[in-house]
UniProtKB/TrEMBL annotation, chain A:
Keywords, comma-separated and alphabetical: Membrane, Transmembrane, Transmembrane helix
One example of a Gene Ontology biological process annotation: detection of mechanical stimulus involved in sensory perception of sound
One Pfam family recorded for the sequence: TMC
Stretches with biased composition (Acidic residues): 1-10
Residue stretches of biased makeup (Basic and acidic residues): 49-74, 741-751, 775-788
TMC domain location: 522-637
PANTHER family: TRANSMEMBRANE CHANNEL-LIKE PROTEIN 2, TRANSMEMBRANE CHANNEL-RELATED
The protein, known as: Transmembrane channel-like protein
Annotated Gene Ontology cellular component terms: plasma membrane
Signal sequence coordinates: none
Membrane topology per record: Multi-pass membrane protein
TrEMBL record, chain B:
InterPro entries, A to Z: CIBP, EF-hand-dom_pair, EF_Hand_1_Ca_BS, EF_hand_dom
Residue ranges of every copy of the EF-hand domain listed in the record: 40-75, 77-112, 118-153
A Pfam family per the record: EF-hand_7
Localization terms from the record: Cell membrane, Sarcolemma; Cell projection, Cilium, Photoreceptor outer segment; Cell projection, Stereocilium; Cytoplasm
The protein, known as: Calcium and integrin-binding family member 2
Matching Gene3D superfamilies: EF-hand
GO biological process: calcium ion homeostasis
Keywords for this protein: Calcium, Cell membrane, Cell projection, Cytoplasm, Magnesium, Membrane, Metal-binding, Repeat
Cellular component GO terms, alphabetical: cytoplasm; photoreceptor inner segment; photoreceptor outer segment; sarcolemma; stereocilium
One example GO MF annotation: magnesium ion binding
Coiled coil: none
Amino acid sequence: KDKEEDESKEEDSSSPQNRASRSKNYQRKNSNGKRAGEERRRQRGKKAPTKDQKESENEGRKTSKKGKEGENKQKKDRKTSTSSGSSNSSDEESLSEEELAMLMEQVEQKKKLISAMRNKPWRMVKKLSVLREAQAFVEKFEGALGKGKGKKLYAYKMMMAKKWVKFKRDFDNFKTQCIPWEMKIKEVESHFGSSVASYFIFLRWMYGVNLVLFGLIFGLVIIPEVLMGMPYGSMPRKTVPRAEQATAMDFSVLWDFEGYIKYSALFYGYYNNQRTIGWLKYRLPMAYFMVGISVFGYSLMVVIRSMARNANENTADGDDVNFIFSWKMFTSWDYLIGNPETADNKFASITTSFKESIVDEQESNKDENIHLRRFLRVLANVLIICCLCGSGYLIYFVVKRSQTFSKMQNVGWYERNEVEIVMSLLGMFCPPLFETIAALENYHPRIGLKWQLGRIFALFLGNLYTFLLALMDDVNEKLAEEDVVKNITRWTLLGHHNSSLGNGSMATPPPLDPADVPRGPCWETTVGIEFVRLTVSDILVTFITILVGDFIRACFVRFVNYCWCWDLEAGFPSYAEFDISGNVLGLVFNQGMIWMGSFYAPGLVGINVLRLLTSMYFQCWAVMSSNVPHERVFKASKSNNFYMGLLLLILFLSLLPVAYTIMSLPPSFDCGPFSGKKRMYEVIQETIELDFPLFVAKIFSYVANPGLIIPAILLMVLAIYYLNAVAEAYQRANAELKKKMQMQREEEKNKRNNKASTNPALQDLEDLFTQSTKSESHPKRAEDKKIESPNQPSPVRTQGRAAALDGSPRTGGRGAAFVPLSHVFVTQPPTLGIWPPYPGQPRPRGQPMGPVPGRGRGQP
Amino acid sequence: VYRLHGRYHEMAPNVVPMDYTKDPDVKLPMQLIINMPELKENPFKERIVESFSEDGEGSLSFNDFVDMFSVLSEMAPRELKAIYAFKIYDFNTDNFICKSDLEQTLNKLTREELTAEEITLVCEKVIEEADMDGDGKLGFADFENMISKAPDFLSTFHIRI
């Protein structure tokens, strides 16, 4: 059918010479092959399939492109006129040209078919055979398509393209094979459903991010310092002071990260402030600074990219209410479940959910006592705020105490670790407390979960920031101490010089043994140590909680059940369920601490990588051995973005302290890569001045001018405002479209039930149009415009494909239902044989109603 | 694909050949496939296998097998999944999901825990919600329209292998 169409079109533009032969369709081929692109467009318009099978596909897929045929035709006309000169060549040449061109078109079609093979719902056998044929065809004729001189180049290009495609595919296969822990996660998924598995997928993703960060830090900071910097013991900052040397190897000291570990590459204090080290002239301080910044930059990028990807998947937001039962019926079963126990649970939960919806549907909303509910909610919130404040104060108090402890001599183990213990205990006991208080509130479970997560988040945040504040006090104290120590050091050195000079000779004195130099308090290292200790204790607490809370509990329930009064498995302790939200939050906070501490303790990220690795195996084992599937098996769909949002928030919050210290605190004078400078960021200025050519420094000084930065900020603010406005406009258009679809659906239902239209406006329209004729071929009418414009927003027209269907199913009210569905239709071939009934059948409806929506849609 | 073939092979080692160059015509009966761990707990397992089978009886050749898992995998596009989902839920294979199909689906989902009136209520609600053209049953258009808006269709209609 298409071929005849094309032929008839061609006849107009064909020259008298070649009217007879069939290859008229492909005439006037150019010999330089430069217009291949246009040819392809032409082919799309022509779609001359060589196989019957493809016709159905073409109909389905390319009806949308009928609109383009018009312009293609014009292009063809233009081309025929311009290339009419070349047609005067001998018959032989033009014939082979045409042949070639025809072949080229067919090859292009086959290629398109190959690339789109995935989306076809054909049988595998059919797909395979079509694919093989297409590939053979392409191979056979591809080589012959290069024209004249360009032939070899063309063939070479084709070969390279094919090789590249093959390489990409192999690489993709390899990548999929490389993804770790796929089998493990699948096992967990089949036992516990997709929500628990989403936690493990999140864990795996975090592991990947941490691995990259670790690679950055390790490769760019630690390795150069270790390989090319001054070795241990050569400088004061790198050696254990003599006073501590006696105890430096004790395990208890090492466990506190003092002793040898404190003076190792794990912490800030080890690094030398030499501008360049080694024969490569590697600028270590600069590298340290830049790596610190890029850690945050990379994390930010990765989190935002992941959020954007998740946001794309959650397309339709509204319209929830319209399909409750249908969705329950068709999408509630999780196909991933492979375990009978979980399946039982799933069946039960589906049944209850159906029953709930039925009950909701049947009875009207109970008249709740709103005042009581509000009062209870306010009460609950007040209680929780009290708890939060209490915990914040407790931490502050404890940190202050630990400072006084550190000044004392005999500190027991408890006093030393008090801070960490208190924080962990708070983290363990407060969330269940919040849950019990939240029972007062009586929210829908999903909303309740969000409140719970928010509260736990606030708890942890409060704790962390109180901890930081206390730490800041500590730091300020140390800074004050530094001045004192500086003086002492100077005097000691002078004294040493004088004593070793003896009789006033000018010989250089023997260097003071590094261990004897009085050391300043290195506040950055202290901060780093604090964070590392916090992380380690957090890890320990998590593992122990899992071990005790899940495993021991499970053993207890299993074995003691025989000789206990009540049924342990069903009653009080029973088996634990996997606490998804608690675990995710723990992971998120752990990551926050890592981000905060990594600037001062480069080794922290390495510790975290180890932790995530072991945690993966450990938790998988724990889950499989001692947890039971949830009773209410709920889906994990939208929570993913919520967790990413939390991660983003934590990233910003952990960026703040680090940025503050970089900008406003002076680095210690005798440890770390920035020692001796007034501020840490001065290293950038130094590098620019000394290492880059002169004009770069000038450029930077201009750029840093406030006069330039403020307008830039204003511009960004304006851009944000504009994008916001655009997004809102889209949302509004979306909402209008939905309303329109809603209206149409109601229309249909009303017509089906032969009721009067519920919408009085439409009723009026109906009456108005009883007399007017309804010619569907002229959808554009002025009167329609006036009346229809309030109801029919033009965005519908922007669905280009819908426009294509203007002509055909305009008959009757069927058109109304069609347009929103049509855009989904054109992507699929009608293999299920449903197409035939629709376009041909004019619904014998009340004619007046019919054209009204149709015409509305026909407006430009 | 090799993994799939491994799985296919281990289901019936004596029948399935390792060498496919001669294009042998081997089909595995439905019973074997239904007992695969991934499908065992699925209430729709018979329908799944039937809708992918060439002869409609439920025997899958290796091509059908691969087809089935590729549609059910993560990478399959939404439209393709919707097409096959429609086939699966259409119990009487008349290319429409009519009321009896819905009833059967519901029974399989809840293992017949709902009373008869509840069942009728739910089925009626579904038809009311999703049926656009008013013929009292769900055509593919209706189904597609409804399922394309469902937020978790892609994540639940997914088997990992």
